[in-house]
Amino acid sequence: MIIAIDGPAASGKGTLGKLIADRFGLAHLDTGLLYRAVARDVRRKGGALDDAGTATAAARELDPATLDDPELRAPGLGESASIVAGIAPVRAALLQFQRDFARRPPGAVLDGRDIGTVVCPDADVKIYVTASPEVRARRRYLEKTGRGEAATYESVLEDIRRRDERDSSRDAAPMRRAADAFLLDTSNLDIEAAFNTAVGVILGKAGQRGS
Ligand code: CDP
Fold it and tell me: Is residue 3 within 8 Å of residue 127, measured between CB atoms?
């Protein structure tokens, strides 16, 4: 079974993806980490994030063993990731890894921006997780300050708005809901309620498939 979860920054898709993977005994890939890792490697080489040559080389040379690097959550790396993610050859270089991960038995949950539309258009279940920018900014702000990071609610909201705009307006695999994705708005749902809704959607699909 392949489950595709997409949505904007801080929508809760990562937490949800992990919980769903545990519940159904599937592997989990947070695909945002791939773009964060490419941005990290470009920065390490001293290159410009919008330089297609450097970013594409970094994507081709990416070592998936480094995806658990805590530095990938460093402040500002989400913004940097969104710049390299707009470069089409970077996305192309990361595509096969994601598809191979999804197809390995017994299946996987992948979360990102283009899983239901580009990476796994034939996924068994697609969920598009969203919430208002204000709710997402509040969550991300609490997450950051909880880790001891200095942040203001206003700067987090601004980052979220800028990233939403960049991710949804780019030409290469823009962030959008697949036509057949279930829309899960978590503005007024806590993680438990969101999880229960998602499990209901997945079990409903599995029932339709007769498995
Ligand atoms: O955790 P958060 O939602 O802040 O970000 P993320 O999921 O780690 O993604 C960081 C950036 O990578 C996003 O802003 C996107 O530009 C990019 N990304 C993408 O283009 N496609 C994906 N499948 C996943 C992430």
Answer: yes
